[in-house]
Amino acid sequence: MFPVVLDLTGRRVVVVGGGAVGRRKAAAAVAAGAAVRVIDPTAPPGAGPQTPDPAVLSTQYSVLEWIAEPYRPDHLTGAALVFACATPEVNARVVADAQARGVWVNAASEPGQGDFHLPAVVRRGGLTLAVGTGGASPALARRIREKLETEFDESFAVWVALLDEARAEVLAAVPDPARRRELLDGFADWPWLARLRAEGVAAVRAAMREAVRTAAGRL
Questions:
Q1: H-helix or E-strand spanning residue 63
Q2: Spelled out in words, what is the top-level CATH class assigned to the domain 12-118?
Q3: Which of 63, 73, 87, 166 suits a disulfide with 97, CB 3.0-4.6 Å?
Q4: What are the tens digits of pLDDT across the range 63-75?
Q5: Strand pairing partners for 129?
């Protein structure tokens, strides 16, 4: 297995199957910024008799396109990533069609048939922690994820956001590469997390900016 982090912003993701598993995959893809198309013969959750086909819905899963018709190969047109979350028979067809088009596909019913496995994920703002077992034990991956959820609280989301701000300011104000690395490495060290928890966001942001100004003034 080769772990990667995919940027799906604006990319087409097709989910075949609108059950609980398919909706979870669709929700994750929407959260990653993808343009999501769900294919399922049934009407989308919460849809009334006047819902258009295809329907563009705003649900708890955010905005996505739901095409209420049986799967066809041309539903994969433009897809960058495909999730097969229907019956095993339909999933086998989806996998074959996606692979024939050179598109990566994940099969919910038989993960070994597809091109990739999905890890168990913990998200804290811009921080993503992923745990995978190569399909050997999703239960173990889930338990490790649950442990990580307790160890990595929402403070990490705030810290990552501050580090993103600080990086932009360091790159703009400090031209020396060695000094840049020193600053950015220092901001990513554990004492800054402790300060964030003890002093709050405003105080830590101000301290980081003062450190940047000091470094810039030494030139």
A1: strand 62-67
A2: alpha beta
A3: 73
A4: 589 999 999 999 9
A5: 122
